[in-house]
Design brief:
This protein has 326 residues and is mainly alpha-helical. The protein is built from 13 helices and five strands. Helix 8 (148-164) links the parallel strand 4 (140-142) and strand 5 (173-175). Bound molecules: tryptophanyl-5'AMP.
């Protein structure tokens, strides 16, 4: 069975983009792959975090994993900092990556933009991400499009080490969906939907109530043409909403265009509200059931033990091939 690894940062506001780009894939893959899903808390501290809030956000993401359908009987679910191999391997990879390639990472450029000095962790963030993936001899990494460059870097580092030493790592492939891999902000469809945007109506969080969902969708930026047609370049707003509609309702884009011929954005948005509310209701319900349960903690503890056992095998090989330790 092929092995799958992915992670989500516990930084609050997990949204429809995270769901449609990544979490949905987590569930889809778990029946016929060996899946490992991580809450990447060490990535979260590349920007300042309140320790109490971070603790809560870790459990929020864990509960959301289960609420969307990740099954701990089939998949390993754990917290990154509970497995020491991530930090350990990250250092070895840091010594085999270059400041030039890290400087080219667009996420680093965006996050450090206009700052005189950025935390080193923000700069080496993609190396820690490569360590996450390589630690588990991962074949497939299901993620949204925004992680493409990070996956490429991970492959480059793995190939570089494999070519200069004994074969040490499995070289992974990213898995990106055709639709849903890049969900855009509702208030500005030229930007991706993000957890950290100030305007809460720029995103639909997975735990939003129906009134908030309705408000965000009805306010969403469209265009003045008033025709429901998929055209990302010229009509990014309505195209983004159509994309969400298509994925959640399972209706092809061409069919949506036909169904809404002669109708306005208002009608379309009203229907989309209903589709999103219905899709998120069972997730919210399940989340409430498990978020404060002892079961959740047990699942994470058990996950860390299982993840650690796999990671130790890789670390033993890495240490041997690099001549580290006794
Ligand atoms: P994070 O926490 O920002 O996002 C989690 C996942 O959601 C996807 N995503 C989106 N997909 C579609 N549309 C959007 N607007 C959108 N926004 C986010 C992301 O691509 C991601 O799959 N660096 C990663 C976390 C990470 C990781 C890893 C992932 C750390 N180590 C190892 C895979 C493997 C991140 O910040 O994701």
């Amino acid at each position: 069975m092929k092995r799958v690894f992915s992670g989500v940062q516990p930084t609050g506001n997990i949204h429809l983009g995270n769901y449609l780009g990544a979490l949905r894939q987590f569930v889809e893959l778990q029946d016929d792959h060996e899946c490992i899903y991580c809450i990447v808390d060490m990535h979260a501290i590349t920007v300042p975090q309140d320790p109490k809030v971070l603790k809560e956000h870790i459990l929020d993401v864990a509960a959301l994993y289960l609420a969307v359908g990740v099954d701990p009987k089939k998949s390993i679910v754990f917290v990154q900092s509970d497995v020491p191999g991530h930090a350990e391997l990250s250092w070895v990879l840091t010594c085999n990556s270059y400041t030039g390639e890290l400087s080219r990472m667009t996420q680093f450029k965006a996050k450090s933009h206009n700052k005189e000095s950025a935390p080193t962790g923000l700069f080496t963030y993609p190396v820690l991400m490569a360590a996450d993936i390589l630690l588990y001899a991962t074949d497939i990494v299901p993620v949204g499009n925004d992680q493409k460059q990070h996956i490429e870097l991970c492959r480059d580092i793995a190939n570089r080490i494999n070519n200069t030493r004994k074969k040490t790592f499995v070289v992974p492939d990213g898995r990106f969906l055709k639709e849903g891999a890049r969900i855009m902000a509702l208030d500005d469809p030229t930007q991706k939907m993000s957890k950290s945007a100030e305007n809460i109506h720029s995103r639909i969080s997975l735990l939003d109530d129906p009134a908030k969902i309705k408000k965000s969708i009805m306010k969403a930026t469209t265009d003045s043409e008033g025709v429901i047609r998929f055209d990302v370049e010229n009509k990014p707003g309505i195209s983004n909403l159509m994309n969400i509609y298509s994925v959640l309702a399972g209706v092809p884009l061409e069919q949506i265009e036909k169904d809404y011929e002669g109708k306005g954005y208002g009608d379309f948005k009203k229907d989309l509200v209903e589709i999103v509310v219905n899709a998120l209701a069972p997730i919210r319900e399940r989340y409430e059931e498990i978020r404060h349960s002892d079961e959740l903690i047990e699942i994470l503890k058990d996950g860390a033990v299982r993840a650690n056992a796999i990671s130790e095998k890789t670390m033993a090989r890495v240490k041997k091939n690099f001549g580290l330790g006794l």
